[in-house]
Amino acid sequence: MAIQVNTLFLEQWLRTNSGGISQNVSGHSSSSSARAIIQAWSELRDSLQNQTFHPHILQSLKNLINSQASLHVADPQAKLLLSVLSSQSFDLPSESYPILLRLLYIWVRKSVRPSATLIDSAVDVLSHVFATEFGLKKSPYFLAEGILILGAISFVPLASESSKIVCLELLCRLLEEDYPLIRSWEEVIPDVLAGIGYALSSSLDVHFVRVLDSLLEIWGKGDGPSITIPTALMILHLVEWVVSGYIKLRSFKKIEAFTQGALGTLKESYVPSAVVMVAAGVLRACRHATNGQGLEIVSMLRISAENQIGFIAQNLISKTEGRVKSDSDPMNSLLLQCMSLALARSGAVSFSAPVLVCLASALLREIFPLRHLYMQILQFLHRSGSELGLNETKKHVDSVLFKEAGAITAVFCNQYASADEESKNLVESLIWDYCQDVYSGHRQVALLLRERKDELLVDLEKIAESAFLMVVVFALAVTKHILNSNFSQEMQREKSVHILVSFSCLEYFRRMRLPEYMDTIRRVVAYVQENESACFSFVESMPTYVDLITGQGFSSKKKMEYEWFKDEVQTARILFYVRVIPTCIERLPALVFRRVVAPTMFLYPKYMNALL
Length: 612
Prior knowledge:
- By secondary structure, this protein is mostly helical.
- It contains 31 helices and no strands.
- The longest helix is centred in the C-terminal third of the chain and has 30 residues, at 421-450.
- The protein is elongated and about 100 Å long.
């Protein structure tokens, strides 16, 4: 839960929740000894008295930064830092500015009641530094630490209104004019976002819209930083922290301004992926709101956030003419990834047909991108080796997106449960087609890679096993829907056959005994075995004898090399039919048995006792 009083250093909290951006050089987690800390302050004091800044003092300052978690910067040390920054007697090296600003930031965040007079002095010094030194010595770290300290001061309750206004004006100017520096070093993004978070949480409304604009549009500028999944997650949790503060303090004016700016009509310059994460952050903050914290306002916020996500989903579907494909458009891909993670971390949301379709597309194209990977591997395997596919696949298996597949699947199934019949039928069709494609693609790739004992195949099957679990959970949701709805018996049997056929396609990836799997099988088999046409339809879906031995779906060259008895994916599918067909064999016409089942018995005689 994002409670401001418990979040001492916002940038560290954002890094923890992003799972992707490492700590920058000015914030190492190792600590220095008490003697080293005392020695560092002493050397800095001597440097000021002697009007010299020796190179070794930089290392002393870094020793202080290394102890950020335990270091306390009192007002006397803050005065010393300000004196060093404002001294005209020696020229500070460029590397010293970010460190000195970080030490001031520690002072601001850890001081219970910092001196208002000293805060005013700090703002004067910072204004002078950015007016005279930043232009000559600018760097990503200098910029980030500047935004961080300026935002932090604007958030200090005891700071004067004039100081807060100066800080917010300078922070906005840095974001608007020097944002290209962030692109060159993504490690500073958490610090920049933390500064924005502090500024949005300031007691003043001055420049609120400018700060919010920077948060939502900086990622779309050609010379600015690109939004990534770790950055998107930080935006989500940043907004969770900010809006939690609004709700706790009953800052209704801020809530209204935030709702109008981020959750109202979208500006063309706003990046949809960032807006989705902002909306998700609002939803998380609303989820944590307690009784008595303006529940009417919280309800309004929640509705606005859900509507914004639905609006962006609808725009994406409209732009792609109802076929949400991400393969050829990286921005569509990123948006689908952000939307799925946003909803996974937001909890239950109201049903939206566009959101359901986008979640289905995200699962099939982004979270379990097996079709894309199979295509890439088959195209490049012989020409360039499997290294390209291996790197891409391993990176995906280790990604935050893949690790949250279970949570995303849960959100998808919750949306499905509340959907209208048209939306249900659409996503069902997408899932069943995906199962067929995975079966076809994995057969080919597995036969090519298995002889090489390729690590790529191991990672592919990790993705496929998780995809199988997703399909099982979804199929159970479909089964419950069939059971609890007034469907015709014909429709119930048709859906049941689709589930059985899909399970057969993914049977190779079933590595454990799942209660959900067994429950679904029992329910759908009960529908199928009651009707001759349903039994016929299911058995007819089994690959024919000719298909089994000739490598149906393979290229002409691969068909010549195909050995059916080595096709483990196909064998697993046939074994699924072997287990299920006995439940409905009494209703199976003899002609169908002779034409479809009997020839297969001669290929897999050791598995066929169950049919006899």
